[in-house]
Amino acid sequence: MSLSIPNLPLLIIAMAATSKLVFILAVLLLVSGHQASAAANDDPAPYFLGKWELLPNNPGISAMHSVLLPNVDEMVIFDATVWQISRLPLPDYKRPCPMHQNKATNVTNIDCWCHSVFYNVNTLQVTPLKVITDTWCSSGGLDVNGNLISTGGFLGGSRTTRYLWGCPTCDWTEYPTALKDGRWYATQVLLADGNFLIFGGRDSFSYEYIPAERTENAYSIPFQFLRDTYDLYRRPGQDDFRLENNLYPFVYLVPDGNLYIFANNRSILLDPRANYVLREYPPLPGGARNYPSTSTSVLLPLKLYRDYYARVDAEVLICGGSVPEAFYFGEVEKRLVPALDDCARMAVTSPDPVWTTEKMPTPRVMSDGVLLPTGDVLLINGAELGSAGWKDADKPCFKPLLYKPSKPPGSRFTELAPSDIPRMYHSVANLLPDGRVFVGGSNDNDGYQEWAKFPTELRLEKFSPPYLAPELADRRPMILVDETEKAAPYGKWVGIKVKSAEMLNEFDLMVTMIAPPFVTHSISMNQRLIELAIIEIKDDVYPGVHEVVVAMPPSGNIAPPGYYMLSVVLKGIPSPSMWFQVK
């Protein structure tokens, strides 16, 4: 068994004879702790800027929404039924064809095109699915058993709840009147007890619980905050122009069980049990951040400690966006304004929260923020001009940005290898268990248009971040999945068997678990990363194999019940993830 590193300096301090020695050793202890966390997330291949891989087949639909199902490694991809078209016919065994309403003609016709598929991220096999209600600009999340619960959408889909399980013969089960209010451009959040709340949506200034399957909500809860953050563009002598800028609000469960909610440029802390606003945070200056002036946001990694009762802080990151009037300028005046070029952070659990901002290498609107197993953030997709909307953006962001939150300001950003495929409005990005990032979608056309300046995009890619540099392959740790528990209750200690040619120590090691998000419109619902507390390291339990004992999170406030991608990170190089269930 290796010695716990932090215990040694503490022991020396306790035995020190003079106050001067105590002071010196205390400083060294603080420095060593900082160096330990930094060493576990070093740049192992600083000259490798990532690699793009174009997948050999596309699903026949544009990926407006995506989520990775646990264990089966099937990506659920779907767009919308509103155009009654895709590039994948509904197969005979899925017929009869459903009836769908066409947005342009307002006519309901038989629709024999496919709008949803399973896409296996390992075999690349496409399995058509049949969706009845319109999923356009909907929301979703995975339940405790890894099943997809999708909500809302357009017209007849706006009050719908949908269920999808990950099996070869599974397909959608839909309940069109389950929700009390219509939920179009709404946000769905998983709570500590495994229930879901859904917030907002166009003209829905409320929230509600997602009801049990086969039941309907009788009421919703009014939410004044969404009215207060709703933007209009005043035009003398004309009707006001609807800007909104508060659709798809960012909603995060924080470690005290409350919800941090950000819309437009303002944010609050809501007690979801009492339906009471506990505090209002300082506004974020510079512009609007939610749809259609769309930024991207993540809850930065939650770090756990050996002390079961230690305080867990939560910090939010918001990057990009646009001026509040950007959508009006694009839609009416046909001019595209520069996106915002800042990233802002705030510790939402602090008694005195303050936004701190720094500049990105390039402005970005409609980017996706992907939490990587190293604790870094990949900012990918988006545009430098405009806003969300049909043909309302230009100058695609081909280069992803790697953001390292543990580094000091001024050294956090790295521009990575560019793609050659524009990914703007209606794009997605999801972390995969092998450490690569699945990238798809992009459609700023009102329908499927291959002849447009930015055509409806069906192609899919995988991006390899710098930690997958070829020269690091031999150094990559591997979890022995068959010798490691795959589920545990809160607070339990779990031993993870790790194959590595190197000896392990706490200075160079992290164990992280990431909840797979539901991704659409630059929002990754329920995405969160937890850095687990390492209890013990047992070197060479047998040749070349070590055991890392970690403590599972103490409660659902830290890690809501469900499946996570668990990875061991050694000197900045993550293992392939294994699926792990906490409940």
UniProtKB/TrEMBL annotation:
Domain Glyoxal oxidase N-terminal residue range list: 64-467
UniProt cross-references to SUPFAM superfamilies, sorted A to Z: E set domains, Galactose oxidase, central domain
InterPro entries reported for this sequence: Gal_Oxase/kelch_b-propeller (IPR011043), Gal_Oxidase_central_sf (IPR037293), Glyoxal_oxidase_N (IPR009880), GO-like_E_set (IPR015202), Ig-like_fold (IPR013783), Ig_E-set (IPR014756)
Database matches in Pfam families: Glyoxal_oxid_N, GO-like_E_set
Keyword terms: Signal
Domain Galactose oxidase-like Early set: 485-582
Protein's recorded name: Galactose oxidase-like Early set domain-containing protein
Species this protein is from: Citrus clementina
